[in-house]
Every structure is written in structure tokens, then in C-alpha cells.
Amino acid sequence: MKNSGNMNNIRCRNCGNELTYTFADLGSSPLCNEIIKPGELNRGQRSYPLHTYVCEECYLVQVGTQVSPEEIYSDYSYFSSYSDSWLNHAKRYVEMVTGHYGISHESFVVEIASNDGYLLQYFKEKGIPILGVEPSSTVAQASIEKGIPTEEVFFGRQTAEMLKGKYQSADLVLGNNVLAHVPEIHDFIRGLNVILGERGMMTFEFPHLLQLVENNQFDTIYHEHFFYYSLHAVQSIFKNHGFKIFDVQELSTHGGSIRIFVSREANDNYDVSTNVKDILFREEKKGYLDVDFYTTFDEKVKQTKRELLSLLIDLKNQGKSIVGYGAPGKGNTLLNYCGIGTDFIDYTVDRSPHKQNHYLPGSLIPVFHPDEIRNTRPDYVLILPWNLKEEIMNQIQYVQEWGGKFIIPIPEPTILTPRKAVAQKI
Predict the structure, then answer these.
(1) Cα-only R_g, the chain
(2) 156 near 187, Cβ under 8 Å?
(3) Does the pTM of the predicted model rise above 0.85?
(4) Which of 184, 259, 309, 387 has the largest count of CB atoms under 10 Å?
(5) Strand, coil or helix: what is 7?
(6) What is the rounded distance in angstroms from the CA atom of residue 146 to the CA atom of residue 137?
């Protein structure tokens, strides 16, 4: 949908074009990881418009209202190490780059947005020199406690100059789920140009816009994610800075991500693989170079909201008890957009002690230890981090003891029974 007369004069943070086409409008929402402490329940919270647009010039999907990174990451509550599947994913990555790309004890590896050291710890085990760059003090300190060298700074050109002078050029730069979190993307890539060695390589993982659209993953839209990338969009940005994407891998993480492999354009160590060409062709064929394609997504989001609320209303009218599992950013987008609070969800649980005995932003649903599910024996468990549903259903398969079932909200509201994990129509 094209917005008539964009009163806010919002412009694309890549090419500067005025943004007039809506991708998805999720109303107003607080910061998704701003977990509320018990003493802050009556303090009130700021909410910001969560309205995404698509640029008709470069086809980059982006949030219109920008919240400063300093505000987002001042008290960050997401610790990567509390997901077993994510740790396994990180370990496999380290095995891949050391086995196939010659990363060894003679290399220098820099991870941007290194969180709590969830990945660099596996390079450390191999005796490979490492450095983490992490702006949030809460998770940076957890990384330092693991013995991982970590600089608590935001990454950009100026920071890269400092890091290169203090350490050295990097043979491998990596960033998992960081490209979407960087509002000044051009300054970020200028920093990469500084820190990367002439023959070095980089890898970045991020949720693929193609998967977001096809699987209706609107809840992955939140203020931390400034951008939502197709391969076409991200390739264009890197190319403008003298880099080439020489390979792409499709991943199952976060509901469907891609990992791009990047080097300097002049680096002849790496030829562009057919994977890159194949995904670019697939995106173009599906319409990702046509602005009208993007504008149909918003209605699909509204329909999912209506279906989820209808299901929850029906269950509550039957006298059923419903609780949540997880306190992820995507879950808070879902709950706040749909207007779901303790009138539907009694509480949620999370493995992270940093979230337990606190409250979710906006909805103010209390967060407890996972043992609370066994104690209260709810009829239904709404799995908010649906991308980890297999891991979570395995962890709490004991709900079958009292006939409990799972609700998966995305891509469409579905009820699953434990063990058999058979979908039921709603």
C-alpha cells in the first residue's frame, strides 16, 4: 500500500529515497527486549511506531521510526548461550571455516556483535586468536568472564580504525544477526573495509526476507531490526563499497536465514558460486524487484492476528488455561501487536535467569522458571520462539502427562499434540 502524502518525510537509510510504500504496519510497540523489573511495573514504558516500509528504488525493507542503538542496548537481556540448538549451530560454523577456509592458529578472527561469547569460545578452544566486539555491557561482561577478549563498543569506521591499531587486520570477520541491527549501514561497511585484511573473508548471517514473507514471520519485525534483507538488497550495498558476495548458504536458523560469504572485489581467491546466482534468480522470479509484491504482506499479517485471537478467545471461553514458553523479541512483537496480555496468557517461562521473575514489555506478562509449567499443568503452551519449537517441545514433552498441548503462532496458528506433534485444524 502506498501512503498518500508521507507526512513524516521518512527516507531510505540506504539510498535516501523517500519511503512511501508500507510493508507491514504493526502499530505501536515498546522495545522488545526491555524486560520490566518488579519495581518498575508502575513506571510506564515508551512505545514507538513499528511501521515498516519498502524502498521503491533499492527494495530495502526497513523500519520507519529509528530508535537509537544506545537506548536499545543499554540494558540488553538477550543471551545467546541459553539456546542449545544455537550453540550447536555456532560450533558447526567454527568447524566449517577451520576445515574449508584455512582459519587456523595463525589467523585473527573478529566477531561483531559477539554477545556472550557463544561462538568465539569454540575458536578459543582451538587456540585461534579472537576478538569480540559487543556494545551491550550485560552480555559483553559475560563474554569477558569466559576469557574471551571483548571490546565494549559499537562498530563503525572510527571504531575499526581503533581496533586495527590496537590489534591487527582480521583474516575472518563474522557477524550473526548484526546487519539488521545497524542503522548506519554504510558506516558499518566502511568499518569492515578498515578491519578486514586484503586477502581476508567475512561471513554474515541474517533472516532472509524471502523466508519472512513466504512463512509470514512478521513477528521478527521489531525496533532492533532496522533492515530486512533480500539477497538483492544486501548484495547491492556491499558492491557499492567494493566487496563481492562470493557464496551463499541457506540455513534453517531463525525460521530461515542466509549466510553470505564476502571478500574484496579484487580478491581472486574466491569465485562467485552458482548459489548466489540461483538465489538472486529465485528472488527476481518471485517478485522481489517489484514494489507491488511487497505491499500485499500487510493484509496477510492482519489476517494472522485475527486467526490467533479467535483461537485464544475460543479456548478461554472453554475455560482452558494458556501459558507461554519463551520471552524472545519476536514474542513481544506478536503479543503487543495482537493485544495479548494476562487476559489470555497467565505467564510465560524462560531458561534465562536474566528474564525470570520479571515482566514482558508492553503486555506485562510475568516470566518464570520453566518448572512453573510442571507446577501449574496448563492446558496449552503458546511457544513464542516458534523457530525453536522442536527443541522446546522436546524439553517439555511431559505436558502430555495431563493432556497439555502446544500452540504454534507462525506461520499460522496451529495446535500440536506432544510426542506425535500432529497439527490440528483450528
Answers:
(1) 22
(2) yes
(3) yes
(4) 387
(5) coil
(6) 14
